[in-house]
């Protein structure tokens, strides 16, 4: 009986949460969707892979040409192999300006053989300081893994290989701001952050190990795209019930996914700003 319920939950989870995404699984054409906005010469396009490189001269980055409000964005990344201490690889979404909103995945490198950490953060109206850090249950340098943002008016979910590692729930009724008024572009970058990234900044980037390379592929964006001629974001992307992510099934995590999140928090959470 229990296992039947479990299977049913998995079925609902698969059908509910990802059917739309899987049906539309065609990946975005990188050069159509993104532009290179920092050190284009450090970005190498190889078949369906985009290699972001860091050396002692520069890091690099890309940004989507369009901005989005609500939906889902994922990418597969294979992180810098070997000694990646001092480096950060980022997959993030951000709006512009000092009162910007931002959602971050930041992958903090480490010396060879020591584990990467994934730092997530959320800025609302220019204020961040909501860091969480997780260890991963696999070596993210050996193969590609999928990192995704899911975002609607009720919650923001950070997923790793479709497993939720973090949920930020809309608590506006308690006076906590929630990012729902600013469209964000989707971005990726690699840079040197050896003043803080690895073991609290104690381990510096060893430049004799450059070139540092993180590889991105399989960009998948299923989100409300803000048309440039529109300034009424909410009329365009904020209308209820227009998109799949507004269905009640996506107001929060279902039971199966809540179990997954609990497992991740119990086994892999290493830092949470709320638990200081
Ligand atoms: C992606 O778009 C560019 C520019 O439109 C085009 O030249 C290229 O062939 C496309 N690549 C693929 C894999 O479709
Ligand atoms: C950067 O690295 C290159 C290649 O290792 C080296 O020749 C050069 O001296 C370095 N430059 C600086 C400013 O460290
Ligand atoms: C956003 O921050 C600015 C100050 O940086 C403040 O004036 C404004 O009221 C804030 N917006 C909201 C919705 O709280
Ligand atoms: C790097 O490895 C050390 C030692 O295992 C660990 O304490 C640390 O959390 C790891 N990650 C980072 C980003 O420092
Ligand atoms: C940097 O890497 C080189 C080559 O592996 C090694 O000889 C050197 O000791 C490293 N430097 C530091 C500061 O760890």
Automatic annotation (TrEMBL):
InterPro entries linked: Beta-glucanase-like, Beta-glucanase/XTH, Beta_glucanase, ConA-like_dom_sf, GH16_AS, XTH
Protein location: Secreted, Cell wall; Secreted, Extracellular space, Apoplast
Start and end residues of each GH16 domain: 1-216
UniProt cross-references to PROSITE patterns, sorted A to Z: GH16_1, GH16_2
Catalytic activity reported: breaks a beta-(1->4) bond in the backbone of a xyloglucan and transfers the xyloglucanyl segment on to O-4 of the non-reducing terminal glucose residue of an acceptor, which can be a xyloglucan or an oligosaccharide of xyloglucan
EC number: 2.4.1.207
Superkingdom, taxonomy of origin: Eukaryota
Glycan-modified residues: 110
Enzyme class (EC, first level): transferase
GO BP annotation list: cell wall biogenesis; cell wall organization; xyloglucan metabolic process
CDD domains: GH16_XET (cd02176)
Gene3D superfamilies: 2.60.120.200
Keyword line: Apoplast, Cell wall, Cell wall biogenesis/degradation, Disulfide bond, Glycosidase, Hydrolase, Secreted, Signal, Transferase
GO terms, molecular function: hydrolase activity, hydrolyzing O-glycosyl compounds; xyloglucan:xyloglucosyl transferase activity
Signal peptide annotation: 1-27
Entry protein name: xyloglucan:xyloglucosyl transferase
GO CC annotation: apoplast
Residues at the active site: 102, 106
């Amino acid at each position: 009986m229990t296992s039947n319920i479990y299977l049913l939950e998995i079925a609902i989870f698969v059908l509910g949460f990802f059917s739309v995404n899987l049906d539309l699984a065609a990946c975005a054409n990188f050069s159509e969707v993104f532009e290179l906005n920092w050190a284009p010469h450090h970005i190498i396009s190889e078949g369906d892979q985009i290699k972001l490189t860091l050396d002692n001269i520069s890091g690099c980055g890309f940004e989507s040409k369009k901005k989005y409000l609500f939906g889902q964005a994922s990418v597969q990344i294979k992180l810098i192999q070997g000694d990646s201490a001092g480096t950060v690889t980022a997959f993030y979404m951000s709006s512009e300006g000092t009162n910007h909103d931002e959602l971050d995945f930041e992958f903090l490198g480490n010396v060879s053989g020591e584990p990467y950490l994934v730092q997530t953060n959320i800025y609302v109206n220019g204020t961040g300081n909501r860091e969480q850090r997780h260890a991963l249950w696999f070596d993210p340098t050996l193969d590609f893994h999928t990192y995704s943002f899911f975002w609607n008016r009720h919650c923001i979910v950070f997923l790793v290989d479709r497993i939720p590692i973090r949920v930020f729930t809309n608590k506006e009724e308690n006076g906590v701001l929630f990012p729902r008024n600013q469209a964000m572009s989707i971005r990726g970058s690699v840079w040197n952050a050896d003043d803080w990234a690895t073991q609290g900044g104690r381990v510096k980037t060893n430049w004799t190990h450059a070139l540092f390379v993180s590889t991105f592929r399989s960009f998948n964006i299923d989100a409300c795209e803000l048309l440039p001629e529109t300034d009424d974001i909410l009329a365009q992307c904020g209308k209820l019930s227009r998109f799949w992510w507004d269905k009640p099934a996506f107001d929060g995590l279902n039971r199966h996914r809540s179990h997954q999140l609990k497992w991740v928090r119990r086994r892999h959470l290493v830092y949470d700003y709320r638990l200081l």
